């Protein structure tokens, strides 16, 4: 509207020829209606089918894991009649520390001897390598056992344990039948599975070492990836000029999020171990490597969350005289926080399940003690699962499933925490 | 007439290569309400936003010419934009309270500028601002409720309270009533009457009756040009330019 400022007024009232009112009751019209309803129904059914299919898969996964893994938390025990004839007195147990005194007194040999006495030649083979630990714990709890004959429940060997759960070899099954007939078999919750680290004997393995390793690795990852990711997202959204360089950075970050994780593992191997000579197999290096992987996910989620903050809020804050930094930290960041946190937890959950890059930096080593510091050698849950699934011994099958249950519970806890945080910080408009 | 509060001289605004405002000069004095009218896209909001440098947030925007606030060039490098915006407050088209409590909405400005030193002082500022915005009686019992839970008209008055809480010299209003119903609009107009004199007010509006009701002087913008600027009564009863006449008689817009 430059020269003709005034639009043409409608000229005359030459209405187009009178239309008759639409007839909505014709056959064609009814058919259209029917087809519309059918399309609606089809769409609803397809959606419902998709939901049920995914729920079905999830239920199948959880059920099969629980079914196979539940027995991993249970151990078979054999009742061992034992009369410890050791060269120590009850007060020494208390004073000098039970571990040292009892192990030094040859308790392992005494247990083997008792097994042979009770169940004949080869009796010692029925017991787990860790059976003497049960005896030690029992003595620690009740030093009077040193001086009398007692019945102590100890862990069965791996093949006996497997056979008792119905999966063993014929020979082992026969021994189980014999033991059961003698009333020597019992079952109990395998507490050591939750408190011990890896072992070569499937009856002695525990998940605590890998769990602690995972926890430490996640803490390192979070401590690095979260601040770096959030500040990068804030800078890119709020400060960076829109030019070719920022476009390039955006594309690079998106690409980084899609790089296969094994490549991050190689990068970690070359840079953190090769160049900086950080300790191998350590949660520190694992965390650094996974932080590289998680950071782009946080940047992308963070930028989307920051974009979602209405511009009117920025205007409002600027108009009362807030500086750009005050706008970001008083208004934009708090409003974007639920989205940033959700993205962070999703990135962390992915990092928690990551195996390949950690294999590259040596976290697949056999580690029999839980790490105390982030520079100690450690392994993590998914790598532990990978290692156990590779074992020949049948006893590791259920342990693998049990470890998967622990990993899934860890994930569930993290996601639950994410939902809690989101609801806690969510702003109602 | 007293010395002008705001003086704009030969102001042009560009968005990239497009010229949105072409050579506009205007004065606003301390004790008046000036209305900017004009059809959509004529640049009146753009011009309003140059007065407290809100256009700085648009990367492609460029301002030529001079704008003085009390004789100080607001585009001079020595001008602190944060202080400028504290002195020249703004109310937007869509009510935009912070998603915080009513109290926090009003207290935010004084707090970041360090205008108070004691909690009681801040309470007084909040109460005073809400009273002047005509909102106190409606919200005094629920100051901790979210500002976004108020009705549209109340939200806009909360935004006005937020703007006056930092004690500005000028208040810019960008179509403050266009999202409100007639009753809420009447309340805002009444409020503008009450605020007049204490603050210089510049209001952009689409509603010519509103311009006639609240302002002493009116500027008519068209296609980035200032077509006519004069006493409101003259503009509406005796426009000099043909284009002004066409617009106010509703022939386009």
From TrEMBL, chain A:
<keyword id="KW-0813">Transport</keyword>
<keyword id="KW-1133">Transmembrane helix</keyword>
<dbReference type="GO" id="GO:0005315">
    <property type="term" value="F:phosphate transmembrane transporter activity"/>
</dbReference>
<dbReference type="Pfam" id="PF11812">
    <property type="entry name" value="DUF3333"/>
</dbReference>
<comment type="similarity">
    <text>Belongs to the binding-protein-dependent transport system permease family. CysTW subfamily.</text>
</comment>
<feature type="transmembrane region" description="Helical">
    <location>
        <begin position="45"/>
        <end position="67"/>
    </location>
</feature>
<dbReference type="InterPro" id="IPR035906">
    <property type="entry name" value="MetI-like_sf"/>
</dbReference>
<dbReference type="GO" id="GO:0005886">
    <property type="term" value="C:plasma membrane"/>
</dbReference>
<feature type="transmembrane region" description="Helical">
    <location>
        <begin position="215"/>
        <end position="236"/>
    </location>
</feature>
<feature type="transmembrane region" description="Helical">
    <location>
        <begin position="402"/>
        <end position="421"/>
    </location>
</feature>
<keyword id="KW-0472">Membrane</keyword>
<feature type="transmembrane region" description="Helical">
    <location>
        <begin position="256"/>
        <end position="278"/>
    </location>
</feature>
<feature type="transmembrane region" description="Helical">
    <location>
        <begin position="284"/>
        <end position="306"/>
    </location>
</feature>
<feature type="region of interest" description="Disordered">
    <location>
        <begin position="1"/>
        <end position="31"/>
    </location>
</feature>
<feature type="transmembrane region" description="Helical">
    <location>
        <begin position="327"/>
        <end position="349"/>
    </location>
</feature>
<feature type="domain" description="ABC transmembrane type-1">
    <location>
        <begin position="211"/>
        <end position="418"/>
    </location>
</feature>
<dbReference type="Pfam" id="PF00528">
    <property type="entry name" value="BPD_transp_1"/>
</dbReference>
<dbReference type="InterPro" id="IPR024573">
    <property type="entry name" value="DUF3333"/>
</dbReference>
<dbReference type="GO" id="GO:0035435">
    <property type="term" value="P:phosphate ion transmembrane transport"/>
</dbReference>
<keyword id="KW-0812">Transmembrane</keyword>
<dbReference type="InterPro" id="IPR005672">
    <property type="entry name" value="Phosphate_PstA"/>
</dbReference>
<dbReference type="InterPro" id="IPR000515">
    <property type="entry name" value="MetI-like"/>
</dbReference>
<keyword id="KW-1003">Cell membrane</keyword>
<protein>
    <recommendedName>
        <fullName>Phosphate transport system permease protein PstA</fullName>
    </recommendedName>
</protein>
